Amino acid sequence: MSCFRLENVSYRYDKAPVLQGVDLSLEPGEILGLFGHNGAGKTTSIKLILGLMQPTQGKVSVLGGLAGDPQVTQHIGYLPENVMFYPQLTGREILKHFARLKGASLKQVPALLEQVGLEDAMDARTRTYSKGMRQRLGLAQALLGKPRLLMLDEPTVGLDPVATADLYRLLQGLRDEGAGIVLCSHVLPGVEPYIDRAAILTDGAVKASGNLGSLRQQAHMPVSVLLTPANGISSLEKVIDESATTGRMTKTGQGTLRVDVQPREKVALLETVMASGEVADVSIHQPSLEDIYVHFIGTGGLAHRGGR
Ligand SMILES: Nc1ncnc2c1ncn2[C@@H]1O[C@H](COP(=O)(O)OP(=O)(O)OP(=O)(O)O)[C@@H](O)[C@H]1O
């Protein structure tokens, strides 16, 4: 049974279409990174899965039931983008309050607070918490009741690099126990090793989805081969000029040559340059998740301002 399945889903607020024909699903034991520019429709997709809104068109099924059904919702953990708590209450009091609301056992509260690194602060009022500590408390709230589907909107906001890596490891542990996890983010650096699949949303449509290998294939992006000359850079340039490669050669400024080649040409290029005796060292750089994201989103940057 899928954690959720969006089939040909469209949604419009007032007149403006926000999602258009989105097909997206998540299986148990999988971490999906949902990436997209401001206003791409990430939060709207999450709200549809939570059953807070109904799609204008298409079907949303969650954990084998209907989105919004309380029997389904009790198995979902959700960390919203901006977490706010009663400032006068302690972390422990707040988590107990949410546990009662969710019908989850109160016994797990101290253990969850420890799991997110708030063991020393659980009895302090949350008005004394830093942004990162509030984010951790939000995460503990999302983990109440051992959810089968966990949806985290910008979970790393406010977390330092060590806490971010801890969070990703925690999520991997939950994934290995069978939870399905959606990670919505603009923050791509560092996330690559921790997700199983990525979906890239732009202007309300899924532009590409799959694991990193599949995304690289879909993007047809070149691989960069970085060559350090053994003798002189001009003799190495000559070897590449005379080879069959259609790749683009550039001098890096650090005395090396970079050749951007299509993946299918990479081995032939390496064979040629290695046989020439003109290469002292080689490194190969595959497009990263960020490169792939920029490829699909375009370099519009602030042109995607979130409105339409
Ligand atoms: N309540 C609303 N009424 C009208 N339009 C809305 C509403 N909420 C969101 N939108 C619009 O829907 C589009 C998608 O918004 P959404 O919040 O889903 O994007 P997002 O990908 O989560 O963006 P961000 O990364 O900035 O949080 C945007 O154009 C936004 O302006």
UniProtKB/TrEMBL annotation:
It comes from the Bacteria. PROSITE patterns: ABC_TRANSPORTER_1 (PS00211), ABC_TRANSPORTER_2 (PS50893). One of its GO terms (molecular function) is ATP hydrolysis activity. Residues 4-228 form the ABC transporter domain. SMART domains: AAA. PANTHER family: ABC TRANSPORTER ATP-BINDING PROTEIN ALBC-RELATED. This is Nitrous oxide reductase maturation protein NosF (ATPase). The lineage of its organism: Bacteria, Pseudomonadati, Pseudomonadota, Gammaproteobacteria, Pseudomonadales.
